[in-house]
Amino acid sequence: MRRRELMLLLGGSAVPWPLAAHAQQAGKVYRIGVLGDSPAVYPDAIEAFRQGLRDLGYLEGRNIAIEYRWAEGKPERMRELAEELVRLKVDVIIVPGSIYTEAAKRATSTIPIVFLGHADPVATGHATSLARPGGNITGLSIMMTEASVKGLELLKQAVPGLARIAVIFDPATPSHGPILKAVEAAGPLLGLQVQPVAVRSATEFDSAFLAIVQARADAVLVLSTPLFVAGAQPLAELALTHKLPSVFTPRENVEAGGLMSYSPNRADYFRRGAIYVDKILKGAKPADLPVQQPTKFELVVNLKTAKALGLTIPQSFLLRADEVIE
Prior knowledge:
The chain is an alpha/beta fold. The chain has helices at 3-10, 17-21, 43-55, 78-87, 98-107, 144-158, 176-186, 205-214, 226-230, 232-241, 251-255, 266-281, 303-308, 315-318; strands at residues 30-36, 64-70, 92-95, 113-118, 137-141, 164-169, 193-198, 219-222, 246-248, 260-263, 298-302, 323-325. The strands form 2 sheets. Strands 7-6-8-9-10-11-12 form a 7-stranded mixed sheet, sandwiched between helices. The chain has a 5-stranded parallel sheet with strand order 2-1-3-4-5. Helix 6 packs parallel to helix 7. The radius of gyration is 22 Å and the shape is elongated.
């Protein structure tokens, strides 16, 4: 009897190969900690991460358990929540970006930490280099410094008459410092004056836009952070109310009514993050796993918002977009 026929007879074909690969650790249940702001901020991305784990043979309730800890709009709780995961002795901690990476880093120097959308891990000191991150932290970077500068350039191309742009940033987000510096350096090269506007909570959204209008800015660039993703709707509405063309990094803000976004596909890199978890659970050290960078960025334009602003986006620009929302 051939080996394949024997396997079919024994029912071996019913066992997915990833599960078979873990057979030597039958009975082992790995604990994965997820530290984030809210399940509502990145619902599609979180599900993509779970699907990535399932594709690799990790099934919740069988060989993995996922412990979620959500700050729910209270960044001051992140350190406490990270410490809870450490006390649970999870095998790996998953974080979506720089602000959570910092909280997890302060809580542990031994448990592996995998970020699934860090804006700039080297500039923030969370990785020694992309090739050799060192320490207990690695993952996937969204290259937000480069994406934000490119977003500035794209907005200038779509609305050529711009002269002054406000940049909304969160001082509590570690990556926003280096990103702001890069944007301020790029502004004059594009013929733009850059006006930084610090926003620390959703209660400051209204006053921030009043300051932007008083400074006579022509448009607004909103840097990415969970606070601004969670506040996608009010930010988009405020930009529209004050007749300000807006550019964001996450597409969620454009779906909520922002003018345009430029970023990698969030669900895709969350899904790919499961590969890092798999490698670490199999014994790989975070220090030896290079930080991955996105291979494709998506330009999304909300044409309905453009019309509401009275803008005519050049057809040549729209043809470059990966998606146009009408």
